[in-house]
């Protein structure tokens, strides 16, 4: 079996001789498109995990989990929960996670308040987060990975962006649906 996971950037390929894991860097949102084109083109992996729903006659898209969004910074927060309005966009390191995230972002910050920097890779986000008072919104799984190091702090928002949803893509003709949990 072959598994593609866009969210964490790895490919798992089970072969007769054992287990092979290949790390695949994710350049931008086009990675979702590449996975979807692979599935639509008939060279199907058995599974793919993506963060954008995909519609095709022979592809089943199943929501697998939701990941809440948190604010992360190297500067400690003075409260357990913040209002989005209390965050200064001039210090924001922004990733356009989903269209729903962008709608939320425009509602709270408007298009006339651009972030300090917009990036398309987590590694670039981490680089810019090293600056004093810089902050970013990210899925809780990514936030936990950074805060475990002890160099970063995370905080919830009282009016958070929509959760990021991870979808399982499968060939609907040759596979059975995942079991409900």
Overview of the structural elements:
It is a single chain. This protein is an alpha/beta fold. It is 20% helix and 32% strand. It is built from four helices and twelve strands. It has helices spanning 30-40, 99-109, 122-128, 140-147; strands spanning 2-5, 10-15, 18-23, 47-50, 59-67, 69-73, 81-82, 93-94, 117-118, 135-139, 153-157, 164-171. It has a six-stranded mixed beta sheet, with helices on one face. Strands 7-11-6-10 form a four-stranded mixed beta sheet, with helices on one face. The longest helix has 11 residues, at 30-40.
Q: What fraction of residues sit in β-strands? A: 25-35%
Radius of gyration: 18 Å
Structural class: alpha/beta
Tell me the number of strands: 12
Largest sheet: 6 strands, mixed
Average pLDDT level: 76
Short structural summary:
It is built from four helices and twelve strands, in the order βββαβββββαβαβαββ. With 181 residues, it is of the alpha/beta class.
Note the topology.
Blueprint: E1 2-5, E2 10-15, E3 18-23, H1 30-40, E4 47-50, E5 59-67, E6 69-73, E7 81-82, E8 93-94, H2 99-109, E9 117-118, H3 122-128, E10 135-139, H4 140-147, E11 153-157, E12 164-171
Parallel strand pairs: 1-4, 7-11, 8-9
Antiparallel strand pairs: 1-2, 2-3, 4-12, 5-12, 6-10, 6-11
From the structure above, extract its key features.
181 residues; single chain; elongated; 4-stranded mixed sheet; alpha/beta; 32% strand; 6-stranded mixed sheet
């Amino acid at each position: 079996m072959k598994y593609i996971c866009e969210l964490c950037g790895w490919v798992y390929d089970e072969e007769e001789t054992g287990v092979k894991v290949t790390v695949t860097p994710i350049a931008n949102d086009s990675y979702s498109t590449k996975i979807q084109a692979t599935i639509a083109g008939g060279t199907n992996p058995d599974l793919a995990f993506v963060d954008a729903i995909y519609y095709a006659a022979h592809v089943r898209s199943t929501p697998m989990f939701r990941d809440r969004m948190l604010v992360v910074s190297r500067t400690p927060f003075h409260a357990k929960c913040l209002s989005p309005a209390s965050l200064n966009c001039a210090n924001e390191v922004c990733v356009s996670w989903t269209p729903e995230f962008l709608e939320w972002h425009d509602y709270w910050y408007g298009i006339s308040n651009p972030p300090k920097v917009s990036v398309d890779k987590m590694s670039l986000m981490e680089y810019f987060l090293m600056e004093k008072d810089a902050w970013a919104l990210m899925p809780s799984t990514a936030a936990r990975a950074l805060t475990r190091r002890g160099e970063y702090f995370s905080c919830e928002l009282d009016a958070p962006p929509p959760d990021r949803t991870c979808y399982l893509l499968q060939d609907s003709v040759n596979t059975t649906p995942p079991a409900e949990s």
